[in-house]
């Protein structure tokens, strides 16, 4: 979706949920019956197609690489791959970490590199091959994160595996340190990529992304060396990649958007060093918080925090005449920073707060890039699944026990936006600068994006607010002008919906009493509830060259309305 919203956002500024950890077992709040619906007018011009839809949403990732080969990991990857076969990418930590492949929270391993008693390298690609094979069998491609440091190469190997767990432990241990021998590190990467070319084919591996490490600007977590040592690590890794495959797509540095100038230093370094850089990558996260006390306490999302983090990195890229032309990947883009952490401030994840936030944030991340004339190629969601955990345990994930969560259904909607962007202007969509400065704290953000593909018009409408509290529905009128001739006579109208009662496995689980171990019939019911649901309506009134459609959209709800030829 790099230019999915280009025309609408550039010309028109795109004026165009409630979940809790399983142990809280909160019933999703309904809007008060007495609250008057908010009138919303959205104007869609189906006759003004502009740039092709570019699916920036098709990037995902997780800390734990070994979950991919487990039962629910395979199922989740299959769902992702089916959204856009061979166009979905997956990034993961720990692809070179030493260990036997046993998964744990924020941990994984492949044992790709060890040394014999004489210090000679031994390469074993068995586990990493299994991971990549699992991706490719399901239509997913690797976004290869080159890391972390094998124990035999670490300059500070003891202790090696961290003892982190939610709420305690230390994350940065031996895996996070520079190598004792940069030549061996480079050779490891060379041998790995060479092996991938032999296994998957040259053209296939050339379609992947390669970047070094994770968030090296956060020394308390992911990097135990200096900035200069990271730059040397990166240069060596990229040399190894390009020695094996000169046309490989390489970039970085996948830093955390921490408000610093690290990205500028990186860009200056790779230009001076002559290190090839095909894309630029950074992370941007929000910051939910608890507001109020006692029974009145609720989660307030930090959308503005995430957008400001992205804007800081965008500004640095835009200021560089070389890098401002390169593709950008937001290598982790999420409401907050720790998928494996639980707790009350993360009580947005299971329900529709997460799904509506995802739409509102993706639109603004694109707007900010487009306003600076930047090429945003991907927005990577750092959420996957956590194997063999309690149902709806409060992690940031796309599925729970193999059951799709509401946020997964938003990506199914994104995948249905095809063709070319058309303008969609909502009189209740918050202005970009207002959201960047303040988030969505007063009036809700009710907006739309749209695309036309031949005789098929798809319109996505969202209803978002930072505060996870009940609020009035939106009474939405879509006024569509300049419909294609084939859609002017009895078009088929389909509405897909994510809200409190549709496409919402979490709400279904709460309604059945929050079983810790759902029975087979209950699991079948939850799987069905997790599917993307279509609902009746909206009502449509045909006009000479267009139509009006009326629908009611609850707070934190998202609708995709599709018009197709009835013939």
Key words describing this protein structure:
567 residues, alpha/beta, Immunoglobulin-like, 6-stranded antiparallel β-sheet, 13 helices, disordered N terminus, hydrolase
Description of the structure:
This is Beta-xylosidase. Pfam families: Glyco_hydro_39. Belongs to the glycosyl hydrolase 39 family. This protein has 13 helices and 25 strands. It is an alpha/beta fold. The protein has two domains: 338 residues, Immunoglobulin-like; 171 residues, Glycosidases (TIM Barrel, Alpha-Beta Barrel), CATH 3.20.20.80. The strands form six sheets. The chain has an eight-stranded parallel β-barrel with strand order 2-3-6-7-8-9-12-13, surrounded by six helices. The chain has a six-stranded antiparallel beta sheet with strand order 16-18-19-25-21-22, with helices on one face. The protein has a five-stranded mixed beta sheet with strand order 17-1-20-24-23, with no helix packed on it. It is globular.
Q: Looking at this structure, what is the CATH superfamily of the largest domain?
A: Glycosyl hydrolase domain, family 39
Helix content: 25-40%
The tally of domains stands at 2
* Continuous helix count: 13
Mean pLDDT: 94
Distance between the termini: 29 Å
- CATH names the topology of the largest domain as Immunoglobulin-like
Write the layout of secondary structure elements.
Layout: H1 6-12, E1 38-45, E2 59-62, H2 71-83, E3 88-92, E4 113-115, E5 121-123, H3 126-137, E6 140-146, H4 182-200, H5 202-206, E7 209-212, H6 227-244, E8 249-256, H7 262-273, E9 279-285, E10 289-291, E11 298-300, H8 303-318, E12 327-334, H9 352-371, E13 375-381, E14 399-400, E15 403-404, H10 406-415, E16 420-422, E17 424-426, H11 432-438, E18 445-452, E19 456-464, E20 474-481, E21 492-498, H12 505-511, H13 520-529, E22 533-535, E23 539-542, E24 547-553, E25 558-564
Parallel strand pairs: 1-20, 2-3, 2-13, 3-6, 6-7, 7-8, 8-9, 9-12, 12-13
Antiparallel strand pairs: 1-17, 4-5, 10-11, 14-15, 16-18, 18-19, 19-25, 20-24, 21-22, 21-25, 23-24
Helix pairs in contact: 4-6, 8-9, 8-11, 9-10, 12-13
């Amino acid at each position: 979706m790099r230019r999915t919203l280009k025309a609408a956002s550039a010309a028109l500024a795109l004026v165009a949920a409630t979940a809790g950890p399983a142990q809280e077992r909160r019933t999703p709040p309904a809007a008060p019956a007495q609250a008057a619906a908010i009138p919303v007018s959205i104007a869609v011009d189906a006759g003004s197609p502009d740039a092709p839809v570019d699916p920036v949403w098709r990037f995902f990732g997780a800390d734990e690489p070994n979950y991919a080969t487990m039962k629910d990991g395979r199922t989740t990857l299959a769902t992702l791959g089916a959204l856009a076969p061979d166009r979905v990418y997956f990034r993961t930590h720990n692809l070179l970490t030493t260990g036997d492949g046993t998964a744990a929270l924020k941990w994984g391993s492949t044992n790709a590199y060890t040394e014999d008693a004489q210090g000679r390298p031994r390469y074993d690609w068995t586990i990493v091959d299994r991971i990549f094979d699992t991706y490719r069998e399901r239509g997913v491609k690797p976004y290869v994160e080159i890391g972390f440091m094998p124990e035999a190469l670490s300059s500070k190997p003891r202790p090696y595996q961290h003892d982190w767990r939610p709420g305690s432990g230390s994350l940065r241990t031996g895996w996070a340190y520079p190598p004792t021998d940069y030549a061996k590190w480079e050779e490891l990467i060379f041998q790995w990529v060479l092996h991938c070319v032999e296994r998957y084919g040259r053209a296939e591996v050339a379609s992947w992304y390669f970047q070094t490490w994770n968030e090296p600007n956060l020394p308390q977590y992911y990097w135990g060396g200096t900035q200069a040592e990271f730059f040397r690590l990166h240069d060596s890794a990229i040399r190894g990649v390009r020695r094996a495959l000169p046309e490989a797509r390489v970039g970085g540095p996948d830093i955390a958007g921490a408000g610093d100038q690290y990205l500028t230093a990186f860009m200056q370094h790779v230009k001076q060093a002559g290190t090839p850089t095909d894309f630029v990558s950074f992370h941007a996260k929000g910051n939910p918080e608890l507001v109020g006390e006692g029974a009145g306490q609720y989660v307030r999302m930090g959308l503005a925090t995430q957008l400001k983090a992205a804007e800081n990195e965008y500004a640095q890229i835009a200021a560089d005449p070389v890098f401002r032309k390169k593709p950008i990947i937001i290598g982790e883009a999420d409401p907050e920073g720790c998928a494996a952490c639980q707790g009350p401030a993360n009580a947005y994840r299971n329900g529709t707060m997460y799904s509506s936030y995802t739409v509102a944030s993706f639109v603004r991340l694109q707007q900010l890039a487009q306003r600076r004339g930047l090429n945003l190629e991907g927005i990577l969601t750092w959420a996957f699944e956590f194997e063999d955990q309690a149902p709806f345990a409060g992690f940031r994930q796309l599925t729970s026990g193999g059951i799709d969560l509401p946020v997964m259904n938003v990506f199914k909607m994104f995948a249905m936006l095809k063709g070319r962007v058309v303008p969609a202007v909502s009189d209740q969509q918050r202005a970009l600068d207002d959201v960047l400065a303040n988030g969505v704290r007063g009036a809700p953000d009710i907006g739309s994006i749209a695309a036309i593909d031949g005789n098929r018009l798809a319109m996505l409408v969202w209803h978002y607010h930072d505060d996870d509290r009940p609020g009035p529905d939106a009474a939405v009128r879509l006024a569509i002008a300049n419909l294609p001739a084939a859609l002017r006579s009895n078009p088929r109208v389909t509405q897909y919906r994510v809200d409190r009662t549709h496409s919402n496995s979490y709400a279904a689980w709460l309604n059945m009493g929050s079983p810790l171990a759902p029975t087979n019939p209950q699991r079948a019911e939850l799987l069905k509830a997790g599917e993307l649901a279509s609902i009746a309506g909206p009502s449509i009134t045909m006009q000479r060259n267009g139509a009006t459609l009326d629908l009611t959209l609850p707070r934190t709800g998202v609708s995709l309305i599709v018009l197709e030829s009835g013939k």
